[in-house]
Design a protein that fits this description.
- There is one protein chain.
- Helices cover 0% and strands 46% of the residues.
- With 138 residues, the chain is mainly β.
- Strand 1 and strand 2 form a beta hairpin.
Length: 138
């Protein structure tokens, strides 16, 4: 429905419909600065069941001061029992100092608990500020 008037902004009414998959995720690591290798396995997200359809993971890095060739690597970890974690997937190493974002998907089963592990490379900057999210497919 379009309303046009000479000499004024045109007005339109539209309906937008989504097609395909919608990723509704949870934040595994809030936007926080880190100064060394670490993980969130001590405060893993409990999804109450495994996801047989896999999922999509998101990484946003706002700053990576003084990045080197081995800046930071971020992995998604998962566990069936919240005790023993294994790698579900990994983002590409981030070495650029400016903002960056990555997304990867996998159809591998994602176990009940999910967490993040980040590995600081040689010459790790004083602070890496990043956020990690995960959307599970059932």
């Amino acid at each position: 429905n379009v309303q046009m008037t000479r000499g004024e902004l045109h007005k339109a009414q539209a309906v937008y419909r989504q097609t395909g998959r919608v990723d509704q995720g949870r934040i595994l690591h809030p936007l926080t600065g880190r100064t060394a290798t670490g993980n969130t396995t001590g405060s893993a997200i409990d999804y109450s069941a495994s996801a047989t359809g896999g999922g999509a993971a998101y990484l946003q890095i706002n700053s990576l001061e003084g990045a080197s060739a081995t800046g930071i690597v971020v992995d998604i970890k998962h566990s069936a029992d919240n005790l023993t974690f294994s790698s579900w997937g990994s983002f590409s190493a981030v070495t650029a100092s400016g903002p960056s974002a990555q997304r990867f998907t996998s159809t591998a089963v994602l176990q009940r608990y999910a967490a993040v592990r980040w590995t600081a490379g040689t010459g790790f900057p004083s602070t890496a500020t990043f956020l990690v999210g995960l959307a599970r497919y059932t």
